[in-house]
Amino acid sequence: MRAATRRALAAIAYRTGGVRVLNAIADRVLVGRLPGALLPARRPDDAFLILIYHRVNEERTRFRIETTPAAAFRAQMKHLARNYRVLHLEEIVTRLAGHERLPKRAVAVTFDDGYADNYHHAYPILRAAGIPATIFVTTGYVESSAVPWFDRVLHAFEHATAPSVMVPGVSGPALLDGEAARLRIARRCLYALIAMPDAERLSEVERLERALLPAGAPTAPNRMLTWNQIREMAAGGISFGSHTVTHPILSTVDPERVRQELTASKRALETALGRPVTLFAYPSGKPADYTDAVVASVRAAGYTAGLTTSVGLNARGGDLHRLRRVKPRAHDLASFALGMAVDSLVHEEDG
Known about the structure:
Blueprint: H1 2-15, H2 18-26, E1 29-34, E2 37-42, E3 48-53, E4 55-56, E5 67-68, H3 70-83, E6 85-86, H4 89-97, E7 106-113, H5 117-129, E8 134-137, H6 149-158, E9 164-166, E10 173-175, H7 179-194, H8 198-212, H9 227-235, E11 239-242, H10 255-273, E12 279-281, H11 292-300, E13 305-307, H12 333-345, E14 346-348
Parallel strand pairs: 1-14, 3-7, 4-5, 6-7, 7-8, 8-11, 12-13
Antiparallel strand pairs: 1-2, 9-10
């Protein structure tokens, strides 16, 4: 009911011009959000938003990482083209480094992981709308039938035939009585797995796959991008950045492994594209998923910017290796438009 109420309120704001009013206010001021309070603040110079997507397709299953239907994505990109200045993230970073002003309502569009549907569904929509974007590729999965560990877990729960399973960190078996229960327990497992050391996580993924007895193969052909698709999109105006080789949580692996993940993925992309790759996105990207030492390694590897999944606005003077991103609040256009306006106006203050 709460989701339906939020959609209804967003629709009213969209139809009555409330979204336009919020955007106009956000062009001039900022509201800082502190625990228990909203406080007016000076709008920072050269404020900009970075949107994060993962997948764009028509799959109806809920056992996927943040999938946006193609029709919804098309409407969202048209809204951005009409109401914002969408720039390549590389251009934003270059302007900030060179002390060149950003336009009002600057936005960058990004994708994480490197799914093939970015090519099949998102890319034609981006071209039609004239929207640039950056795709952060997990290079070890390019042209591979393998998929990231979190997709393996979701697949195993989606197609589980076992009646119950032991969940990491929970005593006693969890009952898998219906789709809602399987989805809830799958998400609980993902959160637990993220916090584990890398070797332990992969071992636990394999245990879950054996215990759940999923029907069907855990991988699917052509789920991830190919190098030819990456080169074609690059020729068509899409930028690419690194998302490591194997998508480890970098705070859970040793410094040498961090270095290898950063440099090998960068080298693979540069070899394929014939140009420097200067942008990086931290796997998972929450503050617990990377450390100060990891950020230093990202800089040392030659990346000029690093993207997190911490929510919020960015501005000149901020740390380019800890850039924030925002997710679409919902698939419907009204909620998306209202969410963009709110994210432009209300900033989560640090501290």
